[in-house]
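so my prof wants the structure for this chain in the tokens format not the other one, which i didnt know existed until like an hour ago. anyway here's the sequence
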Amino acid sequence: EVQLQASGGGLVQPGGSLRLSCSASGFTFSRYTMTWIRQAPGKGFEWVSSLYSSGSTKYAESVKGRFTISRDNAKNTLYLQMDSLKPEDTAMYYCTMAQHRGQGTQVTVSS
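here's what i got, hopefully its the right format
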């Protein structure tokens, strides 16, 4: 059974940083593309970033240059380093693998 559990969210001031983690199990982590998505209050899901098994990465324009996606295949863990956070980054963040989406972690950016 595929399990994905995001953690590391919280309340941070504009300009601050957070690092999200996603612990994965139930599949061969290193072989799959891993993706972060988010959902702001009252809005649909938004793709944030993907990290391919090749090591290549892609980012939404809204986070490019501020967010960094990475993975530790030995720990079956995906990360999202978020810097220079803005109020519009406020959302529930989820990690996904194919059609699987785990529990999210809330990020709130507010002064």
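also thought this was worth mentioning. DSSP finds no helices and eleven strands in the chain.
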